[in-house]
Amino acid sequence: MGFDPSLIYDWNRVEGPELDLQRPPQLNDETLRDGLQSPSVLDPPIEKKIQILHLMDELGIDQVDLGLPGAGPRAREDVLRLAREIVAAKLRLHADCAARTVESDIRPIADIVQATGMEIEAATFLGSSPIRQFAEDWNLDFLLRATEKAVKFATSLGLPVMYVAEDTTRARPEVIHRLYTTAIECGARAIVVCDTVGHVTPRGVRSLIHYVREEVVKPSGREVRVDWHGHSDRGLAVANALAAFAAGVDQVHGAALGIGERVGNTPLDQMLVNLRLMGAIDRDLRKLREYCQVVSEAVGIPIPANYPVVGSDAFRTATGVHASAVIKAFKKHDVELANQVYTGVPSHWFGLEQKIEIGPMSGKSNIIFWLEKQGFQPTEELVEKIFVRAKRADRLLTEMEIQELCRPPAP
Length: 411
Ligand SMILES: [Zn+2]
What we know:
Layout: E1 26-29, H1 46-58, E2 63-65, H2 73-88, E3 94-100, H3 103-116, E4 120-127, H4 130-136, H5 140-156, E5 161-166, H6 173-185, E6 190-195, H7 202-220, E7 225-230, H8 237-246, E8 251-254, H9 268-277, H10 288-299, E9 316-317, H11 320-331, H12 335-338, E10 355-356, H13 364-373, H14 380-392, H15 399-406
Parallel strand pairs: 1-2, 1-8, 2-3, 3-4, 4-5, 5-6, 6-7, 7-8, 9-10
């Protein structure tokens, strides 16, 4: 028996498709650049970075930021190894490297392109907001000169340029206009709109992207890719990135588990989940948890239990009312029903399973279900024994504790 979609009335689609896109949404994985700027991370060994690179590719991520080779010899060596791996393993990932708008950051990218033969975009970045200009004693002329010089220099080395105006969400329209237009005229093929400090709300994203598309990109008469790069300071990164796609950006940047500067970047795993749920992508995401776990271990940042989808509690319940509905659905032999009756994210899409556990909020149906699943006979006496014990506990019972209660008393 198949799952009947009319069992869910979907308010998300009342006004039309949730995300009405002209082109497939692209994702740029910043885990190995912005992600490693998180104050709490360890810079993982190269073997781990290579493993992460492969997982990005398996999840169908479009592009990867390999790092900032201008940062020093270790960074340069790692970027080179990663670029070599993409070529050798024939990964589908496109690549870019970050660079300040200075020649000493741009030249190492060209050297890596030379050594590997793979195309790498130079993501040259420069602050654009009045507050940043004031703090740095920069004026518009300086910014325009730096932009022109950097984009022309990168282009002269044969590098495609992705021009990044930092802090765009707090920059004046005339400055945004002049900086991007200069970059495009000097040869940039992509521009990145940035919420560098996590300031913007979805409404601001809409206004800003609309401005950039209508006032900058269209009048340029060129094919220019528009990217969105946002941060989580207000906890709005995913909502903002989805608003950016809805407003017409081609690519969104993010990092596994949302790691990055301060409280981090847009969580790329959550973008994959939402794009899939919205029907904007259709790909196998069963490696999503592995990707998050490998990154978590590699950088030394644990995944919180209550983290969406890949946290250990994402599909776990011990509450009587919830568990009882899930169990009844399982008994109808309908996994899709069981996996949607009490969560908006069907676990089997991500290779994961619902777990029914036993605790003080549990009913007897949890206990019977648990016992049957583990191959124990749910006698009235045993169910009662576990029920009494669970009601007295101040947390869920562990598997060991329940198994202990299932053991027949010693003769
Ligand atoms: Zn960033």
